[in-house]
Design goal:
single chain, mainly beta, 2 domains, two-stranded antiparallel ribbon, 1 helix, 8 strands, about 35% strand, extended
């Protein structure tokens, strides 16, 4: 289950969340979608495949699922989002807040 309060929304439908499992931290892409009239949040997964030059077809390995990357927006949005990621990991930032960011604890959009 995804804790929506932990999601850093990059757009109105795409975001990223930091998770810890057995002491290992990772970020995962999440998405908002409509299902049966209700808004839901889930992980965003993609299937990796390879191109077979001999048969000229795409082949999907058995374990092809991978966490999807997410765009952090333009440079200023990316900096603000990454500051938030660092804060969630417990790092005290020493750099100034990027120009145009009104709320240093949030993302400027």
């Amino acid at each position: 289950m995804i804790d929506e309060s932990a999601v850093i929304w990059i757009t109105d439908k795409a975001g990223v969340v930091i998770e810890e499992y057995k002491g290992v931290y990772s970020n995962k892409a999440v998405q908002k979608y409509q299902s049966q009239g209700a808004e839901k949040v889930s992980y965003d997964w993609v299937k990796r495949d390879t191109w077979n030059k001999e048969t000229r077809t795409r082949e999907t390995p058995a374990k092809a699922n991978a966490a999807m990357g997410v765009s952090l927006g333009d440079k200023e949005q990316a900096i603000a989002s990454l500051y938030r990621l660092l804060k969630d990991l417990g790092h005290e930032k020493t750099d100034p807040v990027p120009k145009g960011v009104d709320d240093p604890d949030g993302v400027p959009f």
